[in-house]
Design goal:
globular, 6 helices, 207 residues, 80% helix, Methane Monooxygenase Hydroxylase, Chain G, domain 1
């Protein structure tokens, strides 16, 4: 269809870059958890990825404010970018909290939970990248379904983990620390689901 004013397609590239940066952060975070205490710069690299994500989101938002015709609704672009940024911030905050609380060693439960988050972020990247091609709507929705499934898996894992924590922990302070860390990771998973919900809405509008 001919358009008098062309739509700016750069938004898809910026969203994809932000999602890819988020995936790198999730990979770095999993490595940080699995090799906790064995390296000094894991938390710094996570912080660097968070700064890079902030730059990408700022660039996208600035472009959104200056663009007349967008490829998808501007409120959807804003919501998608904000949700990606929220996941990134929560991963960074979790690493900071672990350092602040002087966690001696991540629990097997946290390692498992981090793996679920990494898999959800992988699906987020796939879903965001596939948005540009409307012919892949079915595949895009499949990615969203998998994100939702992983978020439910994370919910189940958190409930079981907290039940075990409250039943078996000897140190109340340790319980408080671990509970906050677990809940931060779960909130990051919730935000991945928010990404999926936003993308599903976009697909429905442009089907």
């Amino acid at each position: 269809m001919f358009r008098l004013i062309p739509r700016e397609e750069k938004f898809f590239d910026l969203l994809s870059e932000a999602a890819s940066n988020l995936k790198k952060t999730a990979y770095e975070f999993e490595d940080y958890i699995k090799n906790y205490g064995q390296t000094q710069d894991g938390a710094k690299r996570i912080g660097d990825f968070e700064k890079e994500g902030d730059i990408l989101i700022h660039t996208l938002m600035d472009k959104l404010n200056r663009t007349f015709v967008t490829p998808i609704d501007r409120e959807d672009i804003h919501a998608l970018a904000s949700n990606i940024d929220d996941v990134l911030d929560l991963i960074h905050e979790t690493a900071d909290i672990m350092h602040l609380y002087k966690v001696s060693q991540p629990t097997p439960a946290l390692i498992k939970q981090t793996g679920i988050l990494k898999r959800a972020v992988e699906e987020v990247e796939r879903a965001v990248i596939s948005l540009k091609d409307h012919k892949k709507n079915r595949r895009t929705l499949d990615y969203c379904i998998e994100i939702n499934r992983l978020e439910n898996e994370g919910d189940d894992w958190l409930r079981a983990t907290l039940a075990e924590l409250f039943s078996n922990a000897q140190d109340p302070l340790e319980v408080i620390k671990l509970k906050e860390i677990y809940e931060h990771v779960e909130t990051a998973l919730d935000k991945c689901e928010d990404v999926a919900v936003t993308i599903e809405g976009i697909v429905v509008k442009h089907a």
